[in-house]
Amino acid sequence: MKVLLVSPNIETLPDPVFPIGLAFISAALKRHDIQHKVLDLCFAGDYEVAISSAIASFRPDIVGISLRNIDNVSFPNYISYLPFYRDVTKTIRKNSSAPIVLGGSGFSLMPGELLRYLGADFGIVGEGEASLINLIEALEEGGPSSRLVKKGRIIAQAGIVKDMDELPVPDRSGFDNRAYLKLGGMGSVQTKRGCPFRCIYCTYPVIEGKTSRVRAPAIVCDEIENMMENGTKSLFFVDNTFNYPVNHAEAVCREIIRRRLKVKWSCYANPGFITPGMVELFLQAGCTGVEFGSDAANETMLTNLAKNFHVDCLREASSICRKAGMNFCHSILLGGPGESMATIHETLEAIRDMAPTAVICMVGIRVFPKTRLSTMAFEEGSLDPSRDFLQPVFYLSPAVENEILPFIEQFSGENPTWIFPGLNININKQLQEKLRRFGIKGPLWEYMKMGERLRRR
Ligand code: B12
């Protein structure tokens, strides 16, 4: 069987991101000697031409589509990627009768709805390596049995990876790595899967499961070395929380230091586990910045969102970073359950006092199925249980819905290092291009001060 793997993610903000999920799938197919080809639409130009010529030359028996993003989770300037995915699926259908299989983090959030909306044949929820191989083998034998395929045409968790070191390392050879490095500035590496935290809105445990499953630091560093040989100088650890489990994150850093890898990197971090020793080790290992999923800096909202830390801990983590000279950014979410203008003022003031390098601030929380926020919204009556989640559903506390946007417009004018993706404030294509033209690698928030000067030009 010949498999065409398609990545239809053409979003380039905040950066074009390398489809590492598909690179894991590609490696799994290679290990099983399954002939395959990657079609990444990110830099392909005319997608219809790219699809029809890939199908004409390769003649696939199965087409796999990786759905990473459903939408930009941003309010009020919401973008849905679904109409484009539908065009892509239709173009594939026009050119081929091969069954279409969907997978990816976005797909896993609402598989039934997406399968119907896109009219695909099968869907794989969660990790795709083993499940896709199972499906291909079943198709070779005349079609999957009901033991494999549940809920219509969906395969759910058929192959959760228990030992991450058994996975083949992502195969990046079918992708235009140079374009990603030039336009996105960094490579992507995964050191673990799974998220044990319980934030009420978060999809990570739904996508990756609730238990951390780690990769051996030596295997991670072999992969980094290989990427460096191919031109990577800067990378992002795509783990939903890099610094937890603490021992594992520190072991990865020690291995980078031991091998003297001159690579720059950044990551998402949980402020609850930051210590001076950890930050020192991160800096020695080449870390240029940590992004805290803080969400709020007010006790009521931290409790309501079920965060595992307190405001004091945010202050402490910020102070540790400032003292050590580590760039740090607080990611915050305004408008969750119980939010009032008073809690918003408290959060903004407290975060400002922490003097972060930058702040990424979202207003309203995109609600996804299987999260506690969705159950709360049903119970509160703010979300109709019969409505599907393909359309934007944002939770915005009724106590702030009239005031918050005008207030943020005014606040952002006085706070140039704060990024508001949903209002397109301090983030846009032009600024991104200017910064990348300066040869800047890594997350753009690390350069917000420089961005401020460029914006004035
Ligand atoms: C790291 C990350 C980022 C980093 C990426 C940095 C980098 N260099 O890669 C940054 C900060 C830049 C980022 C940005 C954005 N992100 Co983001 N990000 C993530 C995160 C935490 C990890 C993604 C990842 O790399 N996973 C590792 C790989 C190996 O896993 P995977 O892709 O899921 O692949 C596996 C399976 O899904 C499956 N699979 C994948 N493809 C296929 C295909 C087939 C055929 C099959 C069978 C299986 C399969 O098998 C793979 C291996 O097991 C996820 C959350 C999460 N935990 O998944 C959000 C997530 C993907 N992001 C999301 C979003 C929305 C965005 C943004 C749009 C946000 C914004 N407004 O800026 C942008 C989009 C950027 C872009 N150009 O696409 C959403 C997407 C879903 C949605 N809600 O639409 C997620 C799920 C988080 C969420 N809110 O729910 N992101």
Detailed description of the structure:
The protein starts with a strand and ends with a helix. It has 457 residues and is an alpha/beta fold. Strand 11, helix 11 and strand 12 form a beta-alpha-beta unit. The strands form four sheets. The protein has a seven-stranded parallel β-sheet. Strands 2-1-3-4-5-6 form a six-stranded parallel β-sheet, sandwiched between helices. Helices cover 40% and strands 16% of the residues. The protein binds cobalamin. The site of cobalamin has 45 residues, from helix 1, strand 3, strand 4, helix 4 and helix 6.
Concise synopsis of the structure shown:
It is built from 18 helices and 17 strands. It is an alpha/beta fold and 457 residues long. It has a seven-stranded parallel β-sheet. Strands 2-1-3-4-5-6 form a six-stranded parallel β-sheet, sandwiched between helices.
**Strand sequence of the main sheet, in spatial order?**
7-10-11-12-13-14-17
Mean pLDDT: 93
Helix content: 25-40%
Give the tally of β-strands: 17
- Given as residue ranges, the uncertain stretches (5+ residues, pLDDT < 50) are none
Number of H- or I-type helical stretches: 18
The distinct bound ligands, ions and cofactors come out as: cobalamin
Q: End-to-end span in angstroms?
A: 55 Å
Q: What's the Cα radius of gyration?
A: 22 Å
Largest sheet: 7 strands, parallel
Note the overall shape. globular
Category from helices, strands and their pairing: alpha/beta
